[in-house]
TrEMBL record:
Recorded GO MF terms: transmembrane transporter activity
Name of the protein described by the UniProt record: Major Facilitator Superfamily protein
Species of origin: Jiella avicenniae
PANTHER family tied to this protein: BLL3089 PROTEIN, MONOCARBOXYLATE TRANSPORTER
Keywords from the UniProt entry: Membrane, Transmembrane, Transmembrane helix
One Pfam entry name: MFS_1
Key word Membrane present: yes
Residues spanning the membrane: 58-76, 88-107, 142-165, 177-196, 208-226, 232-250, 271-292, 298-318
Amino acid sequence: MTGATCVGAALLALSSVTTSLAVFVPIWLCLGVVMAGALYEPCFAVVTRALGPSSRRAITAITLLAGFAGTLAFPMNHWIAEAGGWRLASQAMAGLALFVAAPLLWLSTTRLEACALARAPVEDPAHRPSQPTQAPALRGRLFFLLTLGFATVGASHSLVLNHLLPILESHRMSDDLAVLIAAGVGPMQVVGRLAILGLERHLSNQAVALASCVAVGLAACCLLGSQFLPLLAVPFVVLHGSGYGTVSIMRPVMLRETLGEANFGATSGRMARYSTAAAALAPFAGSLLWLIGGYDLALVIVALACVLAFAAFASLAAQRGRPST
């Protein structure tokens, strides 16, 4: 993670001084590759290996702080870019990544690796509850359901977020109001994560995942109805932000709970591959749906997709109790 962060900082700094589009585009693509080694997936793999059953609270805290960071980063970038241009903003972010993020990642991952080494000898592999005991066929079904659920919710979020401003414009809302609504989604993700911290002892992971599907689906319905009643934009922001804010927590936690810690990094990477692909393709799918039937059709599809994700998560318990074939 530290190495990926350093390489990412170098690429970001390099992108700020290039004057050729032919050079800028490959640098930008390489930045996307480097991000895969520096963000949530590798972080959660390290945390899960080091903390095991205690990882849920740590993952919640990490996503909570990351949510605050994301909320601050957008206006900070805007202010720097307004003052000195986008190149200065890129250089400032590269400096933060290299001189703040990289040292913190080095220190934290070193300590987590030490925790993982200290934890390993005291656990009896024959009685380790998180080790996978399911037959391959059952593990395949469970992995499919988890991946389907999280990829579908992620795609729904991506479609709505990338098309939110044109959706609100089609609902005849002013530009200022549309920007305000869009800006409210991020802080509400932080609120959702705070709620998880307060309720983690009272709700199962599956219940939280199901609630997330319901919230994101209802948010799509509220956004659809806001063309007739603009006040419905308020519950949209609350439901979509808080609902999706818990998904990044539940993905690694439910993966460990369902399939165990063995090969967690590789399994998490496989799931992320499908989830990332779904999120990347969702905006294009949204554009096609808009061409076919407008944004009303796109939002109906989002709501139906959340129903599919709900069904996938609801099926997990039944699959665990079903013999493999």
